Amino acid sequence: MNAVPNSHSERSEESGRDEPRTLPSNQGVIGQVVRADIAKFTTGCLQLLQTPPLGSLLKVEEGSTIFAVVCDARTESIDGRPPVPRLSGETDLESFLETHPHLRHLLQTTCDAVVVGHQDGSQIRHYLPSAPVPLFAPVRLCSAEEMARFSQKLDFLKLLLAAPTHSDEVTAACLRLAAAAHADGRAFLVRAGKELARLLGAEPQRLTSILREVRP
Amino acid sequence: MNDHDSPAQNARRLGLVVAGSLSEGLDVRLDSDRSVEEMAVGKYVIIQGQRSRFFAILNDVRLRSTSAEIAWSLPELTDDFSREVMAGTATFGSLHVVPYLKAGPTADAPFEPAKTVPGHFAEVWDASQEDVERIFGQDDGEHFVIGSPLDMEVKVCLNYQRFAERSNGVFGKSGTGKTFLTRLILASVILKSGAQRDARKRVVNLVFDMHNEYGWKGTSEGPSGEVKGLKQLLGASVAVFTLDPESSRRRGVPTDAVVEIGLDEVEPEDVAVLQETLNLTDLAVQACYPLERRFGRRWIEQAIALDATDEEGRQLLKDLNIDERSLRSLRRGLERLARLAFLRPHSEQNSVQTILGYLEKGRNVVLEFGRYENDLTAYIFVANLLTRRIHERYRQQTEAAMGERGQEPIHLVITIEEAHKFLNREVAGQTVFGQIAREMRKYNVTLLVIDQRPSAIDGEVMSQVGTKIACLLDNEADVDAVLAGAGEKRELRSVLARLESRQQALIFGHAVPMPVVVRTEEYGSEASYARFAGARPFRERLEDMYSE
Prior knowledge:
Helix content of chain B: 25-40%
Strand order of the largest sheet of chain B: 9-8-23-22-21-10-20-19-11-18-14-15
Mean pLDDT of chain B: 83
CATH class of the largest domain in chain B: Alpha Beta
Distance between the termini of chain A: 34 Å
CATH architecture of the largest domain in chain B: 3-Layer(aba) Sandwich
Strand content of chain B: 15-25%
Structural class of chain A: alpha+beta
Shape of chain A: globular
Oligomer: heterodimer
Strand content of chain A: 25-35%
Number of domains of chain A: 1
Low-confidence stretches of chain A: 1-26
Largest sheet of chain A: 6 strands, antiparallel, barrel
CATH topology of the largest domain in chain B: Rossmann fold
Largest interface: A-B, 18 and 18 residues
């Protein structure tokens, strides 16, 4: 797995940060599960270059409902090798793809998400489900209401802080999105901050850096 | 919150018990929405255990952090948001509380002394007014109001019965309001005593009022400069006696009787307690006894007149085995004594009998000292002389009652000021006051001692003091003396040292179920007097009784 997100995902993360209040509220499927662990899964995105914002909440409803937070995203060639650079004149990706339409079938966009809870009946549980999400299950982006409901309680933060990549950045991004979804965003952030302070009691440096990023 | 028994609706949670012991008290982690700045040492809290409710006192507040490192590595986060986040989490307040009482889970279960502690994470709540009322009682036939806890508008009451059945003490350095407090206590005791149906529960007071503060009116720092004394407030149930009728007249005090003492009533024991104030040698004190044996009731006059220079006098001293120097020392002292104007060679009136007559009828007696207010010799001499005789009479009557040959006398409470002069280590063994303090209420007499130097009082006497009411004390030895025998000495010490210098007192001992710091009840305004006028039916009853 790539450790560093490519330029496209960075761009989409930025767009998510610029407009936190315009979370996509459609229930549209953004992709399918292409790799699944108990604690994380990878989504193959339906649209090339279209990744959900870093820190946004995904859900997979196949049997039970499993929630996950986007922690990484990338676009790469399907054979795993990096594309060979050619100076053919087009530096803009869209026009490049128009010129070379077959490339759409050789590239794919995927995103990783860390599992932060599941639904058990009507109860949301902030701990790992008993089984990983099924392969090819459709992945949806949660609406602001769903995000607000999921983050009523903050126990999921411990799973988020244990995310394999960029955990602090992901946590901060997730809290910013969740704060936007709550009626009183500041109160939510204070509550979340307190939970973080408890969880990161022994790691003041991590705590400080997250707090700086979520400070309203 | 626990669902088995929720504290009162308006109570707020303070935090959770995290550690501690019965002997050293409990550590409570303060909830993040509560500020350490709202806390005050002496505050009451309720701890909701699994099966019991505990009643505890806050006695320390501390700032803590989850790790030493975190407190030092976060200083750059000084905005409101970060402070709010950190409060109660990485950094938090902790309280140290001492559980005193424990009750069953139901809201009306009685409190009893705590013999264990609540478990981990028991919830700690602000004590509600109802809790405090349940513990310290309400102003009813059995309880009287002494003040309010520091942070509450509820009243703290003393149990009248328990207060009356032991000797009690009011301590505090000068100017801390001992006199006000004592006046309040005396007025309340008189009021409650009048309300008792059972005669055995009544008490009657004899106050040796050194500074003329209790009987008719007292001085105050308020705008009027004076407050009502017991007689103004309670009317006929209080009689003012005076040793100095002129002074009483000048001050406009209507007195009920003038106390005179005949020199022929004075016994060697009455002189012995004056050894220190009259500067008598040991041998001079010893000399009193043979002189009395030789001369009988007029021994003082004879001793003063004794001329040791002539042959007859020398022979007499030799017979009595008294050396000349001792006689000189004794004579100097006796001459000083005899100069006191209330001492006559012989007094027709029997002051002891008059006082006893009032006491037997249930009338409280305040003895004013008039111009002798700064004369310690007069005070000690009179208080000791009268008390010795009254105590003796009480002893006879009580013993007769035990032998079913009479009625027990009404329980007598004797109030003395400058108590360490009567009860210090050297004389406590000899004076009647030491005896009264030690024998508890065996003969129906107890003491209310008022003192600013409790460390000078004999430890054995102090240990017999049932209820101690301590205003601010700043001398270490005095604090130790007052707290001696209190189980929670260390905790109380921090409370006692932080009392304000006026109108605050720490009360602990027999008449309260747990130590309590109070803002003492206001005394001196019309509203405060009205509380005592509220007992009008009783007063009228008394006045009817004594109007004839």
